[in-house]
TrEMBL record:
SUPFAM superfamilies in the record: EreA/ChaN-like
Protein name: Erythromycin esterase family protein
Pfam assignment, any one: Erythro_esteras
């Protein structure tokens, strides 16, 4: 089998030196409504820089309307306002990234994102508001920040649903902005706030459709914050007892957030999605399926079929930014060379150079081969490297795969603030 895998890689793999070698990939991706760009870690500049380069071309050359990322709505919305030229977003990219203070801030408050933000701002300059490319967060962790944002928004609008927001806020208030405390109270003692947040979302849903032109995105933000509160409530309530189900709550939330953003941008709107490989690569091609887990890539493929194009990333070795424990200071760590027999090690053995693999053509030995595929999170301990490999049939997980033989840690803009 090993010889067959190496032979198949040799036939499929093409040299990759960045977007100049991505013409065929972009031609295929540009036909999709959702282009999912993964990453094997949250702390690697090569992945960020390459995703940014591909994203710029999808926006500028193919008309993609927005970028949606594995980040919180409130902090990403500040950056979104910056790239669209609104004063509340800040005067420069560094100030636009000021709201990324929740650990791990380096995921978004880094030099690669600052450079992309400045490019988006320049691209949007002079365009009509409805034609500007946006940047949005679709993750589920911003329970308290989203509640605060909703209250601030409604307090400025007489006759709004402020009382519904206050009822939801009052329900959460006894838990002192402690997600674990709320999750335990909701899951174990029935002291949850599900009814209140569902009602709040119902009241704010689709208000952007009737808002004045200059306030449409503000009304959208209120709805998306309410969606984040509903998703966060369900996530923290389920994670106390069911790790797999809390994962599913999170990824279903991200898909719903994407669908709402697409509806806001109108018929034909297309999106570029940035998230970890574990979210964008189809879960059915991994051992996640045996644990009852789904993810964004699977859910979108089930709904949209060929309108989804997923790109995975990986590397043989290098450096990465991560923390040794949840909330620990960010540090640059060495990424050990990929373990023998993994996808990354096979790709290295086929030639120690960067490669692009496009799948979906004639069947190869890779289509039935399950090997370990490295996944590094925000918490990483290189000494426990063997636990970071996900059994994967890689051509079924992605439509394309970009391999870097060596990768480098990204550059955070500032030191971490304490995790709340």
């Amino acid at each position: 089998m090993e010889d067959a895998v190496l032979k198949a890689i040799g036939k499929l793999a093409k040299p990759y030196r960045g977007p100049d070698d991505a013409r065929e990939l972009l031609a295929l991706a540009s036909r999709a409504d959702y282009v999912l760009l993964g990453e094997a870690s949250h702390g690697t500049t090569d992945y960020y820089a390459d995703r940014a380069a591909l994203t710029k071309r999808l926006i500028a050359e193919h008309g993609f309307r927005f970028v949606a990322v594995e980040g919180d709505w409130p902090s990403c919305f500040t950056l979104n306002r910056y790239v669209k030229g609104h004063p509340e977003g800040g005067a420069d990219a560094r100030s636009a990234l000021r709201d990324f203070e929740r650990w791990p801030a380096w995921m978004w408050a880094n030099r690669d994102i600052a450079e992309l933000a400045d490019w988006l701002r320049a691209y949007n300059a002079g365009r009509a508001e409805a034609d500007k490319a946006g940047f949005y967060g679709i993750d589920v962790y911003s329970l308290w920040e989203s509640m605060d944002a909703i209250l601030r928004y409604l307090e400025t609008r007489p006759g709004s649903d402020l009382e519904a927001a206050k009822r939801a806020f009052a329900c959460f208030e006894p838990h002192g902005e402690d997600e674990q405390r709320y999750g335990a109270a909701a899951a174990l003692y029935g002291e949850g706030c599900e009814d209140e947040v569902v009602e709040l979302l119902r009241r704010l849903q689709d208000e952007w459709k009737d808002a004045a032109a200059g306030d449409r995105e503000g009304a959208l933000a209120a709805e998306m914050n309410a969606l984040a509160v509903r998703g966060a409530e369900a996530y923290y309530r389920t994670m106390i007892r069911h790790d797999a189900e809390s994962w599913n709550v999170r990824d279903r939330h991200m898909v719903e957030a994407l669908e709402r953003l697409t509806a806001f941008h109108g018929p034909g709107a297309r999106a570029v999605v940035w998230a970890h490989n574990t979210h964008v690569g189809d879960a059915r091609a991994t051992d996640m399926a045996a644990d009852g887990m789904v993810n964004v890539g699977q859910l979108l493929r089930e709904k949209r079929g060929d309108a989804v194009f997923a790109v995975g990333y990986g590397s043989y070795g290098g450096t990465v930014i991560a923390g040794k424990d949840w909330g620990a200071p960010a540090e640059e760590m060495a990424v050990p060379l990929a373990i023998a027999g993994s996808w990354e090690e096979r790709l290295h053995r086929s030639g120690a150079s960067d490669k692009l693999l496009l799948f979906g053509g004639a069947a190869t030995a890779l289509d039935e081969t399950e090997l370990g595929h490295r996944a590094i999170g925000v918490v990483y301990r290189p000494s426990r490297e063997r636990g970071n490999y996900v059994p994967t049939v890689i051509p079924k997980r992605y439509d394309a795969f970009i391999y870097f033989d060596r990768t480098r840690a990204l550059s955070p803009l500032s030191a971490e603030r304490a995790y709340r």
